[in-house]
């Protein structure tokens, strides 16, 4: 996420950096959803998700990133 620049990064840049988004709905081509999560393992216990954030990236009509929301 830190590599993305609002007003400069394109939808193609986002795909290269973050990969495919969670939403692949053709009706929402102006936005993309991603999930960031931090997994912790303590000693011999089963790994668990300690932090999870949903990121919504919004693009303008030229496919330029214009907004990053953390939901």
Question: Can you describe what's shown?
Answer:
This protein is mainly beta and 71 residues long. It is 11% helix and 39% strand. The chain contains 1 helix and 3 strands. It has a 3-stranded antiparallel β-sheet, with no helix packed on it. A hairpin with a 5-residue loop joins β2 (48-59) and β3 (65-70). The longest helix is centred in the first third of the chain and has 8 residues, at 11-18. The chain is elongated and about 50 Å long.
What is this structure, in a nutshell?
By secondary structure, this protein is mainly β. It has one helix spanning 11-18; strands at 31-40, 48-59, 65-70. Strand 1 and strand 2 form a beta hairpin.
| Secondary structural class | mainly beta
Largest sheet: 3 strands, antiparallel
Order of helices and strands: HEEE
Which percent bin holds the helix content? 10-25%
Low-confidence stretches: none
Features:
11% helix; 71 residues; mainly beta; three-stranded antiparallel sheet
Helices and strands, with pairings:
Elements: H1 11-18, E1 31-40, E2 48-59, E3 65-70
Antiparallel strand pairs: 1-2, 2-3
